[in-house]
Amino acid sequence: MRNLQKRVAIVGGVRTPFVRSFGHYLKSTNQDMLTFLLKAMVKEYNLEGKVLGDVALGAVLKKSKDFNMARESVLGSGLDPRTPGVDLQRACGTGLEAAALIANKISTGQIEVGIAGGSDTNSDVPLTFKTSFKDKFFTLQKSKGFFQKLKAGSKIRVSDFIPNVPTVNEPRTGLSMGQHCELMAKEWNISREEQDQLAFESQQNAHKAYESGFYSDLVLEYSNQTKDQFIRPETSLEKLSQLKPAFDKENGTLTAGNSTPLTDGAAVTLLASEDYAKKMDWPVLGYFEDFQYSAVDFINDEGLLMAPTHAVSSLLLRQKMRLQDFAFYEIHEAFAAQALANMKAWESDEYCQKRFGLSNALGAIDRSKLNVNGGSLALGHPFAATGARLIATMGKTLQNVEEGKGLLSLCTAGGMGVAAVISKT
What is the β-pairing status of strands 286-295 and 416-423? Predict the structure, then answer.
């Protein structure tokens, strides 16, 4: 069953290596990275001077001057300047949301081809000053005459210049995502050993994928970096077990080893109608089947990162599929505990009956089909870029089977989740 009117082909995707924040990409902006990737797309698919239907890009952390980041990136890409661009943001689901926007436009016939993706760099976050400084500054600016300006200026204190450093704490609770995930780990009785095991598997899969050349055409050299910085082939369960808790210092189970690090990087994907892809003689990695977005009441009810369970359940119902019907799964590992909580929820009769109105659980997935080329725990997680990474990774992974479908799911800040189904044929 297909819900999109025209088939939407995933032509290809590229990304920068993902690196630790405040390091290698310290002088790179979101626009720098996205423009670099768009230029690569233009060269690879012979798009120089071409007008695309639309380009949707986003970033979670960006400066006010980047209000038109997508359009500015397009203007520096080599595409025809008449190609439009749109900025959007759905926290960590931004890259997948951007793809959904372009795919839906292609599906309805509004456009034939477009690019979607996202970027995030904590190394170039906007620093703001206190509201008190803003008020004093504008009072000074509006003052007339020397003495009035002197009076207004005298009220400015050195403390007013201390910047407000952006955080990813939830505004409604004041808790960080890691602190919220600690609560989920306790609620779902997820042990430290389970989390470390998932992190270990993610690391091993990522290392094997790089060794086999899987990422050779997906990850482009950028700023003298050729691969993701977080892959640790030498890691072991013993080493992971020795790390101290990162969020709940006394009784926590989340550590630097089983949680994603602060990451800089960008990723984009090229989408087209099936007919347009054939016309251009482009290879096709797969086809989008469907998308779903969900949210939970994380303030009064469920855990912050449980929304993907709802998104996936809705997708399965609409597609008339079982959770076990997929050849591969790309489940974003914001934290090992988050991915494990989502999987345990699908296995719970009580949860699936209460939350989805089902007669029994959705069931377990085959873990040998999960994040087979590494997940976010090993590769890193630039917030808005991860969705586009998942799309290209799944598309290429599906090339290893004659036919089949892949399931993507992403949790986001604000208690939201995004999911998608991709088919090889």
Answer: antiparallel
Say if CB 401 and CB 222 are below 8 A apart. no
90 forms beta bridges with: 92
Point out which residues pair with 410 in neighbouring strands.
418
What tokens appear for 342 in the block? Answer: 């989502």
Q: Please, which residues have CB within 8 angstroms of residue 313's CB and are 6 or more apart in sequence?
A: 352, 355, 356, 358, 362
Label residue 131 by pLDDT band (50, 70, 90): confident
pLDDT in tens, 211-247: 999 999 999 999 999 999 999 999 999 999 999 999 9
Catalytic residues: 92, 381, 411
What's the pLDDT at 4?
58
Is the pLDDT confidence value at 1 over 50? no
* Residue pLDDT, tens place only, 362-404: 999 999 999 999 999 999 999 999 999 999 999 999 998 999 9
Q: What's this model's pTM, rounded to 2 decimal places?
A: 0.93
What the chain holds in terms of domains, given with CATH numbers, is 177-213+289-420 (3.40.47.10)
CA max distance for the chain = 80
Residue 152 has pLDDT above 80, yes or no: no
CB 407 within 8 A of CB 312: yes
What is the rounded distance in angstroms from the CA atom of residue 183 to the CA atom of residue 194? Answer: 16
Q: What is the rounded CA–CA span in Å between residue 14 and residue 415?
A: 28
